[in-house]
């Protein structure tokens, strides 16, 4: 092989330098795919945190999506319908795909966060790769001809055709934690999805359909 290569180089030396350069570039291009295929999936660390006392005493509809990492999909949906037709509907379709390796993933909610909150509190928190999270709330009156509808199944299906590594490195970390007094004295509807790692799928669905003519 070396003899053949040397012969080619000698032959190229008899012609213009441009042809010699073109030959060198060709060998470099052939080698590059092999080098690229040998590279491992990129390693990463992700840290998502809600600080102590965050949104304490908040009221109304509170929707939080917090993500650290790659290709995380999150959604919060709240539907309220009070009328003669009485129709309320909520539907969400989620999917994601990603390639990577998680070395450290940490998701934390601090002390007194959301404490004394009131209303609809929906929180999604993810650290890592390709985590799917969904919260949905449907409130609606209904007559005999109308229904309150919701996509209550876990429609946030596992990601398709994704490539990820959920194994911890030596000394790696997966941690999801909520402080003991977070959400303390909160009232109403409280939904929390918290994930640390790769490819986790979580969902919360709440449906309330009072009798026709009933007011909230």
Radius of gyration: 27 Å
Helical proportion, percent range = 10-25%
Q: How many DSSP helices?
A: 2
Biggest beta-sheet profile:
4 strands, parallel
- Report the strand count: 10
Spatial gap, N to C terminus = 84 Å
Tell me the fraction of residues in β-strands, as a range: 35-45%
The average pLDDT is 72
C-alpha geometry = flat
Give the topology, please.
Elements: H1 2-13, H2 17-38, E1 43-50, E2 59-70, E3 73-81, E4 99-109, E5 118-129, E6 132-140, E7 163-165, E8 173-178, E9 187-198, E10 201-208
Parallel strand pairs: 1-4, 2-5, 3-6, 4-7, 4-8, 5-9, 6-10
Key phrases:
216 residues; alpha/beta; 4-stranded parallel sheet; 42% strand; flat; Adhesin
Give a brief description.
The chain has 216 residues and is of the alpha/beta class.
Describe the 3D structure.
This protein is an alpha/beta fold. Helices cover 16% and strands 42% of the residues. It has 2 domains: 2-38, no CATH class; 43-208, no CATH class. The longest helix is centred in the N-terminal third of the chain and has 22 residues, at 17-38. The termini are far apart. This is Adhesin.
């Amino acid at each position: 092989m070396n003899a053949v290569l040397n012969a080619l180089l000698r032959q190229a030396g008899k012609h213009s330098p441009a042809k010699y350069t073109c030959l060198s570039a060709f060998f470099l291009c052939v080698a590059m795919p092999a080098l690229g295929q040998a590279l491992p999936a990129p390693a990463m660390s992700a840290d998502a945190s809600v600080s102590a006392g965050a949104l304490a005493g908040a009221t109304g509809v509170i929707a939080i999506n917090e993500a650290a990492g790659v290709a995380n999909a999150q959604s919060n949906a709240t539907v309220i319908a009070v009328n003669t037709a009485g129709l309320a509907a909520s539907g969400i379709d989620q999917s994601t795909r990603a390639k990577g390796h998680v070395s450290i993933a940490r998701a934390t909610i601090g002390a007194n966060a959301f404490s004394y909150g009131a209303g609809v509190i929906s929180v999604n928190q993810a650290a890592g790769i390709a985590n799917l999270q969904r919260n949905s709330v449907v409130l609606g009156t209904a007559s005999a001809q109308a229904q309150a509808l919701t996509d209550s199944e876990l429609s946030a299906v596992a990601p398709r055709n994704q490539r990820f590594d959920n194994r911890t490195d030596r000394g790696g970390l997966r941690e999801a934690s909520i402080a003991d007094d977070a959400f303390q004295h909160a009232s109403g509807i409280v939904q929390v999805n918290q994930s640390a790692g790769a490819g986790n799928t979580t969902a919360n669905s709440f449906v309330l359909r009072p009798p026709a003519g009933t007011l909230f």
